Amino acid sequence: MKLLVKIFIICLISFNFSLARVIIVDINGSGNYRKITDGINAAVAGDTVKVLPGVYEEQVALSKDIVLMGSGCENTKIVYFTASPTVTISNGKIMWFSIKNLSTGGVGVVFNGGTLTNCVVMYCTGNGVVLANGATGTIRNCVFLKNSGSGIYTQSSNSVVVYNCISAYNSNGFYNYYSYSNINVNYSCAYGNSGHNFANTSGNVGNVTVNPQFVNINESELDLRAPGVSDLGTPDFTDPDGTRSDMGYFGGPDAPVFPVVTSILFTPLPTGGIRIQAKARANW
Question: Which residue range or ranges hold the Right handed beta helix domain (predicted)?
Fold first, then answer.
């Protein structure tokens, strides 16, 4: 009996140490940290850094096997003004953010590895995403919109796989500068780019150049009108409603399913309290 008790205690202690944590970042001060970088620095492999709504003006680098999770691209924005890039990723997963770089020729994301999923990279003064030499990993269900450079750009050899993405109204869509380098793009849409839609890409299964039919071209209304590119993503994955995955931000296995708040009304009460009324739109 004593032996059994000792074994139970050892197992319990080991289990507790393996529990992943959720670290909260809130620019308004309600979380564990105010800056995304501080949350990442505090995290260890397996943790999730959850970023609450706000505009975070900082450069972010992710090299740990953690999940960096925003609160929706409509509400959680990483913006940088004075240097490039805004985000560098070489490990882990980034999801549910809007990412911008407004410095001269600024890049939104330099991608070395990991997973970039269900994010919007827009209004960068340079390229939206640059694939680094030797990069590996996956970019899926992202939208690259109105960047002054290309949506995704590379001039290096890499083995990154891109699918279910939309690159629209940039200078180029998916642009591989040299024929010996690579962008592997499948089940993605390039539309309305002033230069090339797909240039020197490989894979090229299921790609289209049709109007994606966004409800509106901003972070808060990037869901799709039918037919657009609904149900044209890879058949290997489904959307939250069980249908074939859509291209773009609201598609795929990591699609955000929470409602989007469109307006909030605060009304003072005679008793000294406040009535809060909110309107929201569900995307599923």
Answer: 79-206
